[in-house]
């Protein structure tokens, strides 16, 4: 009998996420605001006209308080948006409910003239929550869109607190070609078609739409009054405040700061979602050598400690690229710099792709060899530059991508950034403050009972005669009354030893301790599992839940024994099933020799205090309830999900990945705003979708949680207390960090799995329906599915019909868990 009921959701997103092409132009994320520079390296300011002005780089927004004459502006080095095919300006904004404000666009008759005219659009419909405005440039009737000088936010009708998020120009030029032409080892040109194969991150609106708004309340359409409240031509005297710097085509000396391309902060951002730090595509398109012995990724593009290591496949066809949107570097950045560690004699090709049309479809390729740049290597990490001046005739107004190819050795890159001036310095590796866990201790107790559970003498049963075994028989080995486990870093695998065939009342052992004797790594979780209320393994979910503690916190300093008070397993211990060893975040083996219950701990062993774990939820608790909980998928299917759910007249919960939400090309922010407005729940699903428990450090876990919280807040204007773990991966560390980040947070798994990851692309996709029906028949009432595949999306109405036929009431996860903060049914 196996205890585990969940499957793995292997690389769901990744299958279709091969590097999308997004060519929106980031105007400002406020990272350089301290220097009064926007992300284009151009001047931006409020000229002191607001109060409490804060540039919040972490959340990519500015906040300020307005008075009667407040304004804020950002400038361009004369943007040719018609030529570059930008059709709209987009930004999230928050202001006092009922207020209006005006966007002023300043344009010249040509880029060689300094006089300009202003055009105005007034925006209404402000609700008090963050909403994304997308304003077609065509609404600035009469403006010369091929010579944009600046954008001004002004005429705030209500004085109070305002927020402007990341501003971008929206590209019309998202034509995704189906790609993957053969890669030539000599000419780099053929590689570029694979850069733009995309299905996930496609579809930026080519016609700008005004977005709908709202943070979970009623839907109010944001009225885009394209009518110009003011005269459409005003000459420079009324807008002289921004003139002084508008026309300077480069940042004033000393005011440029380097622009990060990637700091390799996350394996999953780079090789699962295929994003760099600019949230632009970055990938090797699977051309690098596959790596043996890593289960978290099948690529040899390996991220660690803010560096990426690339191992080329033999044959010379490997490459790796990172894209920038369509970046204007002229008179701002001198080149791209990065640190590289490579053996002596290493060479590689360096290609800069440009496109006057800001398109990645058929870019101009500018190629040099590392030797042309004078790069030599000696096995140590050093700073190298890719000066644009070395590429003769390169169009630095429209930089699309950097691509490395023909890499002759294993190389490791450090943070990569555009540098100012002509020489550049290495981009600083971000400093990470290690998370320090509480070290408090609690008094030792004396328990009533002691007995041996497992000495690993028997293949399938423990000393109590009950089943023991694991998810994957290749990951553990019993021999000579010892068991060696090495999950090779796969934090989703477990090994179990049971104390009952049904329910065991373990409360008789309260105040006793679980003792495990081991050697080797203690980077894993120990869990105590609880049966379902009927003690029937044929009812879903089984197990019903479990609680988790970190082996390392309960170890002695010699790393030979660990002792856990049974009361630290916060489950209903009258329904105990058994123990699980799980959440291994290591590739080092652990050898177990004894699992037992003891009455006391050795003298001198300090019992650590229990850290709060977010409760692990597989089932709805409200009588007669049923919840669809749908995880992020392929944006192209989002609208079909929206309409199926609407047609069924039900409310559901969506778990969303932060990085994809911030990527405006996915349109997911607008999709989820619509879903919130329609009464659905939206909650967290991590920032880049890694197996959270498998991350190497607590700081890495926190980075995922905090960035997701920030992304959901800045795009949707909401917070949540619900989290669904990517792949369902669970362990003590993620549950503790979640509880620390979000007090009262709930860790939501599932009891109905359509197994889309297994069947959707198979020859029998209808097995998704069979599986759904089967889990529902067993009493499952909390769904996992993704809108990643056409078949899954097509079956949603049938899934809903099956669920409804149980007679249960369909609702959001918070409602089905009887959350007092959930909206009424
Ligand atoms: C983006 O999503 C919104 C809300 O669902 C939808 O109205 C709009 O059509 C979408 N835009 C595109 C380009 O798909
Ligand atoms: C634990 O489970 C038992 C048996 O189902 C039940 O009677 C009891 O109320 C539960 N205790 C709690 C605290 O839920
Ligand atoms: C998606 O699935 C539906 C129903 O199975 C089918 O009719 C349709 O042709 C499919 N579309 C694509 C693009 O495969």
UniProtKB/TrEMBL annotation:
The keyword Hydrolase applies. Residues 624-811 form the NodB homology domain. Residues 228-253 are annotated as: Disordered. The keyword Isomerase does not apply. GO terms for molecular function: hydrolase activity, acting on carbon-nitrogen (but not peptide) bonds; metal ion binding. Its cofactor is Co(2+). Keywords: Carbohydrate metabolism, Cobalt, Hydrolase, Metal-binding, Signal. InterPro entries: Galactose-bd-like_sf, Glyco_hydro/deAcase_b/a-brl, NODB_dom. CDD domains: CE4_NodB_like_6s_7s (cd10917). Residues 228-250 have a biased composition (Low complexity). GO terms for biological process: carbohydrate metabolic process. Residues 1-19 form the signal peptide. Pfam families: Polysacc_deac_1. This is Carbohydrate esterase family 4 protein.
